[in-house]
Specification:
InterPro entries: P-loop_NTPase. The chain is α/β, with parallel strands linked by helices. 52% of the residues lie in helices and 11% in strands. It is globular.
Length: 226
């Protein structure tokens, strides 16, 4: 964390108390995190914060400013270098290294929100090791990951999962790299969560979204009021 996030030596700056009352859903891609957050928002009247949406759109200016501040080229990297001419391991390492910086931007977003009920923040970048210092109990976080079989199912049925969506020279290799990267990042989230005593929920497709939301609501029950 950067110095502006600290009050004393270890206290995360949280002037409106939003961060310490938040509930967090992390995990692997295509596990249904966003769907569950939307269900809980409608059911309990809480606010859902979708990390992926903000990270892909609202944070672009901050991403550009950071590159310039570091003396890096302002232009986006070549897409083939990002997705094709690389390995899943290198992609996962780069993504995991970027997550702490992107998490700082998420914290800024959340600090600006005020709600009479908890805010549910969901997204794959809300890593257990980043959230753990903020929460007062492991019950404030859950990690959702798809089983390998359910991940394959999602790739078959979800358009946004089935294709990369970027113009690259080798779409098949780029997609294979992406899926392998996502698996590695999900596995890292599971290992870290278990080491921190945070619950991991494997989603295998045998239950519908409402049933999964019931399970997550039960985990968050000390903080949810209808």
């Amino acid at each position: 964390m950067t110095s502006h996030d600290l009050d004393t030596g270890s206290e995360v700056w949280d002037p409106l108390g939003t961060l310490h009352q938040a509930l967090w859903i992390c995990g692997g891609q295509w596990a249904g995190k966003s769907t569950v957050a939307r269900i809980l928002a409608a059911r309990y009247g809480v606010t859902a914060y979708h990390y992926d949406y903000h990270d892909a759109r609202a944070h672009n200016d901050r991403r550009l400013a950071r590159r310039i501040g570091l003396g890096e080229p302002a232009a986006d990297p070549d897409l083939d270098d990002v997705w094709v001419n690389t390995t899943p391991e290198a992609m996962a390492a780069r993504t995991l290294a970027d997550f702490p910086v992107r998490f700082e931007w998420t914290l800024d977003d959340l600090r600006a929100l005020v709600s009479g009920r908890p805010i549910i923040a969901e997204g794959w970048g809300l890593r257990p090791e980043l959230v753990a210092p903020i929460i007062d109990s492991p019950r404030r976080m859950i990690v959702m990951v798809p089983t390998p079989e359910f991940r394959e199912h999602q790739v078959r049925v979800l358009p946004r999962a089935a294709a990369l969506g970027h113009p690259v020279s080798d779409p098949a290799r780029a997609q294979a790299n992406r899926l392998a990267r996502d698996r590695l990042i999900a596995e890292e989230a599971v290992r870290t969560a278990r080491g921190l005593g945070i619950r991991v929920l494997e989603v295998d497709g045998s239950r519908d979204a409402m049933a999964i939301a019931d399970d997550v609501a039960g985990h968050f029950s000390p903080y949810l009021v209808r």
